[in-house]
Design brief:
By secondary structure, the chain is of the alpha+beta class. It is built from five helices and nine strands; from the N terminus they run βββααβαβαββββα. A hairpin with a 4-residue loop joins strand 1 (12-15) and strand 2 (20-22). Monomer.
Length: 155
């Protein structure tokens, strides 16, 4: 598991803006990087919509929000359109970045085991270091907690 104070692992992934995006592009800004299991599922939709609703507040704090799942860009684009999401979603279909950030774990649903993303959020400071690391995030109240952290710790 990654720890606060460590450098954030750089990556380059396809994004919903039609190009490849690297984490290092955002050096000099704070970044909220949230990993979520699947587009258009109840918990993921709630989380994404809460980030949408607080997007202006994050922007005022010079903070970029990026979402990552293993869904395709096409799926991400539909998710964005359906819920009017104002931030980029990045596609990690082979799970390389998910593995690097240690968010892929075995899940057991109705007796069926699979490997999936454990909802996790990383706040990265302007210098590219991990300022907050949250694994196994519960959706309710999480976005507000992240916003308060950025507001209080990374002004």
């Amino acid at each position: 598991m990654l720890k606060v104070g460590e450098p954030a692992i750089d990556f380059t992934l396809d994004a919903t803006n039609g190009r490849k995006v690297s984490l290092s592009e955002f050096r000099g800004q704070n970044v909220v990087l949230f990993f979520y299991p699947k587009d258009n599922t109840p918990g993921c939709t709630m989380e994404a919509c809460e980030f949408r609703d607080k997007h202006a507040a994050f922007a005022e704090l010079d903070t970029v929000v990026l979402g990552i799942s293993r869904d395709s860009i096409e799926s991400h684009e539909k998710f964005i359109k359906k819920h009017d999401l104002p931030f980029l979603l990045l596609s990690d279909p082979d799970g390389t970045v998910c593995t690097a950030y240690d968010v892929l774990k075995e899940k057991n649903m109705f007796g069926k085991k699979s490997i999936g993303i454990v909802r996790s959020t990383f706040v990265i400071d302007r210098e590219g270091k991990l300022a907050k690391v949250d694994y196994k995030v519960k959706v309710a109240g999480h976005v507000e907690e992240v916003l308060n952290f950025v507001r209080e710790q990374l002004k």
